[in-house]
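Narrative summary of target 7.
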Amino acid sequence: MKLANKRAIITGSSMGFGFEVALAFLDEGASVALCARNEERLNQAVEKLATDPDRKSRVLAVPTDISSQSDVRRLMETVIRAFGGLDILLCNAGVYGPKGAIDQVDLTEWVRAIEINLLGTVFPCREAIPYLKRQPGGKIIIMSGGGATNPMPFLSAYAASKAAVVRFAETLAGETSEFGISVNTVAPGALNTRLLDEVIEAGPDKVGQSFYDKMVGIKKQGGTPLEVGAALCVFLGSDESNGITGKLISAVWDPWKDLPGHLPDLIDTDIYTLRRIVPGDRGKEWG
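Modeled conformation, tokenized:
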């Protein structure tokens, strides 16, 4: 039971990857607060998770718009009253936002995607930190994705916001290290969820032919199993990951199970971080 007696909040957890992480956290002994905007889906998720008396006592549903400061503050107060504290915050809620060229998309929708993906990460972190400071070993886990490390033409709001949350996490890790709080971001792989279906439904005219073809291929292959990323989140929420902070870790490509054995290499280096590439990094003598 890697998360026994841990108390966690998972945003965007009524379905998809967030739901899978909630299930994994419960299986590892944590008490979990689920939050999402759709109250009906949220209640359905709790019904699925609370399949026995022990689980039922450890699941809490709090309808929340994570882009609203007042909603997030109410979420945090509700969880603290119910659980008596907080050990893990996992920021999973996110959207692709408008699909298309920046000069053609609805700017209101573009801004809304930034509010959900970026501010919807900042607000929960801001509200959670005072509680995470109260006990050693607090954990913040932020979902990243392909948008953080690669340009994504025709999905500019998603790409910009996901890169932003990674740099926010790196910065937050520096601010909270003296309190023993770890802050990391996770790239869970190409998931076969509603976001993938959105891209396919939008079509190549909106998202570009190459990205559309890639998503269709992932859909046919089934994508990365949700439990792969969920297992990494369990690891980052547990004491096994103590000392690892300020990193962007891929659930698929990085040897994350072995990272505790490489702490000296991870601490105070830029391994698994976003950094500028200069000519010398690519064997060029100019610049």
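The chain has a mean pLDDT of 93.
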